[in-house]
Amino acid sequence: MEVVDEIVNSAVDIPRVETLIFPQLKSHNLHLHSVPQHDELVLATREEINRIFSLNWLGIESYLSVYSQYKSLLNGVASNEVEEFLQSEQVVLKSFKEHFDGYNRLIDQLYVLWVDVRLGIFSLSCTELNQLLISNGRTLLNQLSLFLAQHNRKINKSICERYEEIAKKLGEDPDDTQAMTELRKFVEEAQSITITGLLEEVKESLERLSFIIELVDLTDEDVKMNSSAFLWPKRIDPLFDEARLKLLTNQEKAVAKVNEMKENLEKVLNGLDEDIQEFKEKEVGRDMSEMYADKKLLDDITKRILECHKESQNVNNEEELLEFNATPFPLCQTLITEKAPFDTLWNTAINFFEQQDKWLNGPFSDLDAQTIQNELDDKTKLMLKLSRQLTNYPNPKKSASLIKQKLEKFKDYLPIINVVCYHGLRDRHWEKMSEVVGFPLKPKPGTPLNKILELDLGKYIEQLEEITQIATKESTIEKKMKDMKTEWEEIEFIMTSYRDTGVSILSSIDDIQIKLDDHVLQTQTIRGSPFIGPFEEESKTWQDTLVRLQKILDNWLKCQATWLYLEPIFSSEDICAQMPVEAKKFGVVDTYWKEVMGAAVKDTHVLVATGQQNMLERLIDSNNLLEEIQKGLNDYLEKKRLFFPRFFFLSNDELLEILSETKDPLRVQPHLKKCFEGIAKLKFT
């Protein structure tokens, strides 16, 4: 429509020919008549042109549909599809071929499209568009080709590396049966599974190469890699043959080695059996050196049997690797079982004779009668059991019976050992024993038991045992007394600070009270014992200590409770001014209290804290003064109530709160509801 506008506009203001012929007419501004834009002819022309254009434009729109199938090459959809395809985990040659065929087909179609198309009054030039679409298609084909070539190179490299690993493993020379077994399993698995899979990969690589070779130019490295991958299947077969031959040779060597190990083991076991047979005919030696020598032989046999047991496990392991049935070595376990009684016999004999020497020649003060009794009983039972086990071996059985006799003989000393080796014996007991036997009996600390046995105390054993029993009872009392005192050494008071006064107060003493009650009862029981004599004075002193402690605690807690109640009251100057006598008495109590608590805080152990000089007396005096103070306080409050009867509606604490702040009349405010019915609060002016 701009052309029509331009034609109409070009006819405007055209000078008339007269003005050109007659110059004097130029000033008259004479122009030819022109057609305006809204003229009917102009408008009709416009409509006609629009109609013709519309009819011819339909052909162009219809022809554009020819390029709809190539739209993805322009808008990036095809490029994105290729990227997604190349990023997929699996690379399948069939899918590549489908993509190649699809894009080649599009390119072929683009080549046969018209480059100039005449449609009515229009002529379309498609050269640049066709070339652009062809170029985009070839770019995608190149992208696919390069990726497939790189993928093929990577696969071929992996094939070659795996073949090389197999070849390296096949070339190994196993140095033991375990390595040989592993190599055999590897050969079987590699040939039946791994190589089969590799052959399939080589076949796929060959198919892939036949497709790639028509698309891209291969480098020398690619050619070399392809050749290597394709030749490996033929190169690997001889290596498998060599490996199987090597395994056959090693198998024969391994079998020979196992047979040799079994023969050597049988020889050693038979030799050990002969050594044990000698002990079946042997008696335990008469002196310690001979017993030690025999024990050393037994220990050596034990060591060698264990070595044989370990070797038998090695043989069975080798047989398992060779897939043979495991060879049993029953003689190995038989030797352990047969040797056990002789080990027990010689070890028990040596242990008894060593202990007997220690008991007889060592300091008697180190001996414990009960321990010796247990040792002798255990060994006697063991010898009885051995005597039954060694029935078929006369000499070892004779030795077991002889040792049992020695054990029984030593048991005859137990009554004397029970008497003189009791650790609870004191000088008073030794003096009584000396009176019984008629000579000084108390031995020196290093005196051996042998010397005491030489004194022939057996005829006095009943009297001596009676004295020992008394010593036992007294020792029990002594231990209980000591234990109680030891427990109190660790018990401490728990102190807590009282507000901001700088004074500490007692916290909970429930555990202390329970312990005190228990020990008071124990002490009373002890003092009722008929064996209290030697500890009469000590137990009386301890009982007095506990009783005094109980009194101190009772008065302490009572004083603390009252002090805590009165301390806030007498902290008020108004109260002190109104009750000067009671305030003075409270000052005395307050001084006592702070001195007692100050000393207790320095060392909170119960026995130390309650051991202050005159502590009980001072607490009793303080409680007496506190009772007088409380009585005076009650009289004072009663007087105030009589003066103002409405104070009877208030408790002592509420009344004291008012009286302690006489300068502040507002302190009465919270208590008005109790004093006056119907009055909640007052307004002070």
Characterization of this structure:
- The protein is mostly helical and 685 residues long.
- Helices cover 72% and strands 2% of the residues.
- It has 25 helices and 4 strands.
- The strands form 2 sheets. Strands 1-2 form a two-stranded antiparallel ribbon. Strands 3-4 form a two-stranded antiparallel ribbon.
- A hairpin with a 4-residue loop joins strand 3 and strand 4.
- It is flat and about 185 Å long.
DSSP summary, beta strand count: 4
Estimate the helix proportion, in percent: over 70%
Main β-sheet, spatial strand arrangement:
1-2
3D shape: flat
Number of DSSP helical runs = 25
Classification by helices and strands: mainly alpha
| SS strand fraction | under 5%
Radius of gyration: 61 Å
Task: Please give the largest β-sheet.
Answer: 2 strands, antiparallel
Question: pLDDT average, as an integer?
Answer: 82
User: How many angstroms separate the termini?
Assistant: 102 Å
Order of helices and strands: HHHHHHEEHHHHHHHHHHHEEHHHHHHHH
Low-confidence stretches at least 5 residues in length (pLDDT < 50)? none
